[in-house]
Amino acid sequence: MLSAPRSPWQRAYVERVIGTIRRECLDQVIVFGERSLYRHLQSFVDYYHRSRTHLGLGKDSPVPRLVQSADLGRVIAMPEVGGLHHRYERRAA
Q1: Contact of 73 with 93, CB cutoff 8 Å
Q2: CA distances from 54 to 23, 30, 48, 49 (A)
Q3: CA quadruple 52, 47, 66, 75: dihedral positive or negative?
Q4: Residue 72 in contact with residue 92, Cβ under 8 Å?
Q5: What is the pLDDT of residues 42-74, one digit of tens each?
Q6: What contacts 24+ positions apart, CB below 8 Å, involve 44-53?
Q7: pTM listed for this prediction
Q8: Taking Cα atoms as reference points, which of 35, 36, 4, 41 lies closest to residue 20?
Q9: Cα–Cα distance between 65 and 16 in angstroms, integer?
Q10: Which helix H or strand E contains 88, and what residues bound it?
Q11: Degrees (nearest 5) of the Cα angle 63, 55, 14?
Q12: Distance CA 92, CA 66 (A)
């Protein structure tokens, strides 16, 4: 389906994803070229699908995560997207 030029309300889902990529990734990094841009976007897409919570999914990610009990150990931060974001997991000490 085609949409009219300069009509972002007709492409709400695409505009939302593009805005998220810009706010949470591209506005925070310096891109040196096409390969650098590709690496940043690939890293963000992996983070977006595996770690980032989505309210529409009940604060889960598109790739479901297991609930970790407190007896698994202490919580550690695992940097993602070059340290811009973190995933938190429990690991045995």
Answers
A1: yes
A2: 16, 26, 9, 10
A3: negative
A4: yes
A5: 999 999 998 888 888 888 888 888 888 888 889
A6: 44/81, 46/80, 47/80, 47/81, 47/85, 47/87, 48/20, 50/87, 51/80, 51/85, 51/87, 52/85
A7: 0.76
A8: 41
A9: 24
A10: strand 85-91
A11: 80
A12: 16
**Which amino acid, one-letter code, is at 8?**
P
Full DSSP string of 28-75: TS---SHHHHHHHHHHHHHHHHHT--BGGGTSB-SS--PPPPGGG-EE
Q: Scanning the structure block, which residue is given the tokens 């973190």?
A: 86
Residue 38, both tokens: 């590709």
Task: Give CA–CA dist 11/40, Å, rounded.
Answer: 24
Token pair, residue 81, equals 């997207």
